[in-house]
Amino acid sequence: MNRRRALPAVLSLAVAQMVGATVAVADDRKETAQEVQVAGSGEVYQLQPVTVTAEKMTSTDQDTPVSMTVVTGEDLERSAAKDTIDIVRQVPNMYMTKAGQHASVAFLSMRGVTPFMEAEQPVGFFVDGVHYRNVDMELLDIDRVEVLRGPQSTLYGRNTEAGAVTIITRDPEPHQEGQVSVGIGNYNRKTISGITGGPLGSEDWSYRAAVQFLDSDGYFTREPDGADDVDDATNVNARFKVRWQPQQAWDVIATYDGARYREGSTNIAPLSALREDSHKVSSNYIGSNDSDVHGGNVRAVYEAPAVTVTSISAYGYENKDTTYDVDGSALDLMRLRTGVDYSRFTQELRLSSPEGASGPRWVGGVYYFDQTDHNDIDMTMTGMGMGVQSVRTTTDTRNMAAFGQVTWPLIDSLSLITGLRYDHERKDVESQQTWAAMGRDTGVDQDMTFHAWLPKVGLEYKPFPTLLTYATYSGGYKAGGFNNLADPGNEKYDAEYTRNYEIGVKHTALDNTLSTKLSLFWIDWTDQQVEELILSQSNISNAGQSVSRGVELELAWKATKALLLKAGAGWNDAHFTKYEDNGTDFSGKRPPNAPAYTYSLGADYSFENGLYAHADWLGTGEVYFNSANTQKERPYGLLNLKTGYQGESYEVALWVKNALDADYATRAFDLGGGTYGGIAGDPRTFGMTVTARW
Predict the structure, then answer these.
(1) Helix (H, G, I), strand (E, B) or coil at 14
(2) Mean pLDDT lowest among 5-14, 78-87, 255-264, 526-535
(3) Pair 137, 126: CB distance under 8 Å
(4) Pairwise CA distance, residues 66 & 147, whole Å
(5) Residues 442-464: what's their mean pLDDT?
(6) What is the 3-state secondary structure (H, E, C) of 608-654?
(7) Are the beta carbons of 494 and 477 closer than 8 angstroms?
(8) How far apart are the first and last CA of the chain?
(9) What is the pLDDT of residues 555-604, one digit of tens each?
């Protein structure tokens, strides 16, 4: 039997087996957040249902037929999470590549689908429904994070072929509240944050403001002078929201958010040296990573009796200037400067069925995206006798789309899922690349157009209120583009596509104290964008095809009133099935920057006197840094701990991250001649935080 034809049959059989196994223990009690009394067994403390908007309509996590991880704001605070990577490590089959504290190079992989330095992301990143370019951000006043695995192109559009991360920040409420937190830690880390909110003159108007300051010496020490602040950080994050919510159908929120990062970037060392002492570097030049980010958006929701109308208008701007001593030595061989200046406007208008309406659940709308990027790159190699490489590129990207999705009830427990998006993207590029030593000066003025039909179809079966099963097929797509570091004539690369087959089960049992989520997937990845990078030249081609198949499991058990246990794991067999470069066949090799497995274990215990304790163990499988799979990071695990006392109006907490001081590299690349440079992940950090609330 043909493998693709055999796959749906195998998946259907697996669903039938899982349903048969779970029906025996399923009950028809609906989820509730309150404590219930069960005759003869005392109190049962249940898991609370989490409201999500993954399908751009309100539902609960357990009732949404999508493989997803939801991390609440309370979860983030309890685990002392501070950056995007702290979310990523809790998600099965997800990985983040970083090149610094808030790196100019940071990207996400999911289920083995991964990007490269000069290509766009395959995982969409959204904050309050607005597309963000920079995925490496500090977490401030978060309500929840929804991480959706598998193509989300039908509803979310461009560059979500592997999945989407959507961060929802806390909205204003018409009651007064606030808090102030002060923290200290090793590496001379100091933080202070404040949150305030409440009514603005009347109950129809309210506001919420949050700000956070961070100052740290950083984690790296330079030899031979012993400077221990070569990757220091002085950062500010802020957000301000105003809400108009009359006692009628309108809900309008205007938001401003901004960030100012001033950080050192002296953190590159040869991989061989990194293995011996991961946070010692040799450098003749202390680099910098300076970034200013500003954004504003207006979200307006109107709830009519027969339809809900949502409009999200957003504008964002970022200026980033980064300098590196990229040779990783005390010699003045190579310095790299990158400057990024971009502005972006997006508009989404959608209609959806009212919350709680009977009959089909539906959503549809249109989307517009307009972004201008200015990229300046200068590579100085005078110490190597090669002069200066400079690149100046301006890219205008316009994306327009129309989309819709309907869940049709067929019978009481069975529904049909249908969705479709048409996506059209145009890029206008002007680029100038100069190699002074080679006498090369190349200019390019090029237009590119990409478009795709992105379908989703599936079945949702819910025989009991506590059991949901689903089977879906969805298409993913990432537009092509222009690689300004490529050899002349090879700058353009085409779009790539994914086809995702998935089955899943979501089940709650034991009086809603045990939650299980299981999914199996198969991804065919065609016209794959593959990068070969030898600093500072990068070439991207569409020579590759890959497949990824795997499984994801998440468990949560409210074992007692005081104890919550969580576990998650993901495994994927991602590999090239067709990729040859310069006569070398890479078939069977794994794509770079995508571990074969990840897992997490967590425990949270709340004592009745206000004390609490939290522990996480977060594991990552081996990660390859090149397509030949000759350079890799071995498997590693991180132990994070937090304990504290929470009173009615204050909290005191002690925390430690990477408690066992595991050494690992988050990024590595060819410096030339087969010598790889790498950047180490954070060492053991610890500190204390004091919070006052009112």
Answers:
(1) helix
(2) 5-14
(3) no
(4) 10
(5) 94
(6) CCCEEEEEEEEEECCEECCCCCCCEECCEEEEEEEEEEECCCEEEEE
(7) no
(8) 66
(9) 999 999 999 999 999 999 999 998 888 788 999 999 999 999 999 999 99
Percent of the chain with pLDDT strictly greater than 90: 67
Count of alpha carbons within 13 angstroms of residue 516, beta-carbon side: 17
What's the residue count for the chain?
694
Query: What average pLDDT does the chain have?
Result: 89
Name residue 22's amino acid.
T
Flag whether pLDDT at 177 surpasses 60: yes
**Distance between CA atoms of residues 253 and 353, nearest Å:** 21
Nearest CA to 84 out of 129, 158, 142, 128 is that of: 142
Kindly state the tokens that stand for 547.
Answer: 């497949």
* Residue 2 scores a pLDDT above 70: no
- Cα dist from 563 to 76, 213, 599, 655, whole Å: 17, 33, 20, 19
Q: For residue 143, give the amino acid letter.
A: D
Pairing of strands 163-169, 123-127: parallel
Nearest to 329 by CA among 271, 270, 288: 270
Residues 242, 255: Cα–Cα separation, whole Å: 7
In three-state secondary structure terms, 56 is coil
Is-contact 347 367, C-beta < 8 A?
yes
Long-range CB contacts (within 8 A, 24+) of 34-42:
36/511, 38/511
Residue 76 pLDDT exceeds 60 = yes
Beta partners for residue 144, in sequence order: 72, 168
pLDDT attached to residue 43? 63
